[in-house]
What does this fold into?
Amino acid sequence: MPNSPRKVLVVEDEIIIADSIVKSLNSVGYISFEPALNYSQAIESMEKELPDIAIIDIQLSGVKDGVDLAEIINSQYRIPFIFLTSNSDQNTLERAKQTKPSAYLLKPFTKQDIYTSLEIALYNFDQKKEQITEPTVYEPYLLVKKGTSYHKIVFDDIVFLKSEHVYLEIVTRQNQKYVVRTSLTDYLKKLPSNFARVHRSYAVNIRFIEKINSNEIVLPEYSIPLSKDYRKELLKNFG
It folds into this structure.
């Protein structure tokens, strides 16, 4: 294991099993987040802090199961995950295989099973990251929580982002506003290259820029401050 302990998110709707996994993780040097009992809790946990790896029960209770969670992890969070499984039906197993999990843990399992699966999964994931030379391929949307629901925001609909302390406001061309708890720097890593930082507190989708003045950017219905530190880099996008 690396010098800093790896962080693990356990997604398991049976509390006794979840607690047992957490104790096993802690005993072998991993840091475990508060277990998530369902899809929504898992998304909320990852939005607060991204783990290094997730352990997911395939058969979660609720409308969305562990396979649904794995699909969104692949498209948006890009971390390795291990499936927990027992007697899943054939259709669910076929769906699970399509998500390409790092490993499967068959219930009941031992502490050594968990440790071995995690070590191999993280090692293989680290090796793949070192070998990647192609540009990152981004999915064309994000999932953002608003109230008790998760909303799908297409990248092309985002006009600009505004940072306020520990929160980030996302404004779309439909004039919808969403607030997430994260930094502007971290969120820009999830977005494609047509998003540019223009100020300490602002980033814009350059496709919506109508005019660039000396100290501001004009967007449809909005004027955004432009810092001289970012102006030169921004202009490179326009040849």
